[in-house]
Write a structure and sequence with these properties.
The structure is a homodimer of 404-residue chains. With 404 residues, chain A is α/β, with parallel strands linked by helices. Chain A contains 12 helices and 18 strands. The first copy, chain A, has an 8-stranded mixed β-sheet, with helices on both faces. Chain A has a 6-stranded antiparallel β-sheet with strand order 14-15-13-16-18-17.
Chain lengths: 404, 404
């Protein structure tokens, strides 16, 4: 049995008109003789409205009741989709987490899907039915409603694809796919046809707008091909697949960039175990997200310099924490606003020598100064002055021929 | 274990502020050392909004999906109430129909509660918990979500009171209780302290605003005392109970009135079996609600006159049906707009002779002409000219000392 999982995000089912359009997409797939499983998010805005209500009730709203509350949003969307398919003459019904059941483990508001019971759904599929599954929700061993944390309905779709050994999971959303870089920042950005899970994960700053990293990781671990495409425009999207499925010989797949960061350098930090932790623990507790971290080897074996980046708006809070925390030991601290991180990503760089050099040379030719460098297997990131960010993006996009 | 069921209607939980107030009421009851079971409707407006969505999706929206859709409203209200109780330090949780379970039979959108499983709820009550049950919903033998038709959450509350052998079921709503007559029509109307199920049923036109007749009937059959009271004003409400609990010696409990009806008289109808059915069937099919029906004995044994009342706005439709339907056999038809029905209701009239006479004399004294009379064991209804309705109401309210 060939199974395709279709997942629709909140904006795709945001209005009655959009739900009608989504139903047409489902019918198109159904006519291709595939078995279709649909997973839907709540209509956009609904979940936020419910969360707002919970905050008005209590600034410390019960986690288990939060799950009952917000899971109602997906219930509404699914019944409307199934009702529309019925109206069009198709056998369809909504399936809530507890009806399947989708068993989860872990705490309320942040559970993980452990098992998807297949029996009832398989019977329904064999009868020619189109199940519309409420995303984001499940049920735990105590028969309480749960919601799955980060990734939400995307994770539901991927776990269902895994348990049903689906051919493909198509994520319908409000963007056309994954681009070589943010199209809002660079008009020449091109939609990527095929990308590996690993590249997608490294392009988090682009990818997060399309899918949560945790869902990409779930797909990677379970080897599920994902297609991300628009529910509004009829065009092929981006296929996210395993590395070995990438046949083209491109070196770089995409460029991600941040445009307003701040850099913090601690000079003369004692070079001994536990020092890094003593710096990042108070930041983490205060919800300050640390991005790049670079520490060079200690020249004298006693002291080293440590640089990290944060969002520009977190700079004042970070200054206060570092200056007031006596446990952090250093000689001098330097703060700099107005820096940008530019990263080139591509599995091709593993087998292609000289990528680093080409990147640095291209930037040097444009007189763009590199402040900090950090690399992974398939990503090279540099920290540059914010005013050079746009120029760097254009330069690298051209250098690695991404517009083609 | 002394159990009290508290039911809150849509207006009582219509906003976050009102939900907070409702929680205070629950806590007051809890402090009286009773075991409390709460049943809640959806926040007012929510159900209508969901129904509107279903109609936009299809003019023939699937019944089973309708139940999934609209039952989400009660889910939201219950989680917010439970969350608020948790915030106030009380052990509480929401219970959805399928979690208890509340088993229903009958068709979707109009199921009836068959069984309420007590085990889990009893355990929760024994642990000191306050269960907040989603009204209006249940689950059928196929594990599909169902909703119960007429009566809605009131019926849920009464059936739960029945299965748990509750001492009392308190219906919190937006009115203070049941009045001797509509307070909007007569300022002197008084709140009734105690009323029998039968009187409440006969006062349908008043009672329907407070509770659906089907719920009153359920309470009557299961001998459950109901108290109807306001969730906004701290005052005793109206107790609806069995006839033998009424100790006072009043004759009449209340007066109901309709203010804009039309009267239809068929003159010279053949006096043979099936005639009445042939008249009312086409009206019923066309959703015309027939209220009073009076047929006198046939003087010559062959023909009779038949009078019935309908809502004034249905008159034109009714005229058309009667005049075009060849199966209805009569000599002449008379239509009259602008009539009102005034009914006096009271179990006391069974044991008190002369009530009919007193009613007719009081109206005659005010020169109010009675057109049609119809009586039941505990109700006397008369049809009068619409312009006399207000005067009749004042006269009868005074005659039977209801203002005291």
């Amino acid at each position: 049995m060939k199974i395709v999982v279709l997942k629709f995000g909140g904006t795709s089912v945001g209005t009655i008109e959009k739900i009608k359009r989504v139903t047409d997409i489902i019918i198109e797939h159904k006519k291709k003789k595939n078995k279709i499983i649909v997973v839907s998010s709540a209509m956009s805005g609904v979940t936020n409205d419910l969360i707002k209500k919970s905050k008005q009730i209590s600034n410390n709203f019960s986690d288990s009741e939060y799950d009952v509350l917000v899971s109602s949003g997906e219930q509404v969307a699914c019944s409307l989709i199934a009702g529309r398919l019925n109206h069009k003459g198709f056998k369809s019904r909504s399936w809530l987490g507890w009806q399947i059941p989708i068993f989860t483990k872990g705490p309320h508001t942040n559970s993980r899907i452990q098992k998807v019971n297949k029996n009832k759904l398989l019977r329904f599929l064999k009868e020619g039915g189109i199940p519309i599954i409420a995303g984001f929700q499940g049920v735990n061993m105590s028969e309480r409603v749960t919601t799955i944390g980060r990734g939400g309905s995307d994770s539901s779709a991927i776990m269902i694809a895994k348990f049903f050994k689906a051919q493909r999971c198509i994520i319908y959303t409000d963007v056309e796919g994954v681009f070589t870089t943010d199209p809002n920042k660079l008009k020449k950005a091109k939609k990527i046809k095929v990308i590996s899970y690993e590249e997608m994960l490294e392009m988090a700053s682009l990818g997060a707008k399309v899918m949560q990293p945790v869902s990409i990781q779930d797909a990677r671990l379970n080897r599920i091909d994902i297609e991300v495409k628009s529910s509004f425009i009829k065009k092929p999207g981006t296929l996210i697949t395993k590395r070995t499925n990438l046949y083209n010989n491109r070196i770089i797949t995409g460029i991600s960039s941040t445009h307003n960061d701040a850099k913090v350098t601690l000079v003369g930090v004692k070079d001994r175990p536990g020092v890094a932790a003593s710096i990042f623990k108070p930041l983490s507790i205060n919800f300050i997200n640390v991005d790049m971290v670079v520490q060079n080897i200690s020249a004298n074996g006693k002291e080293t310099d440590l640089t990290f980046t944060i969002k520009a708006e977190d700079l004042n809070k970070t200054k206060k924490i570092i200056q007031e925390n006596k446990r952090i030991n250093f000689k001098k601290v330097l703060f700099q606003k107005g820096v940008s991180k530019i990263s080139i990503i591509g599995v091709g760089m593993i087998t292609t020598p000289g990528v680093t050099f080409r990147m640095f040379q291209a930037l040097a030719n444009k007189k763009i100064n590199i402040q900090v460098i950090s690399t992974s297997e398939i990503k090279i990131s540099v920290l540059i002055n914010k005013k050079d960010a746009k120029k760097a993006l254009i330069t690298l996009h051209k250098e690695f021929k991404l517009q083609k």
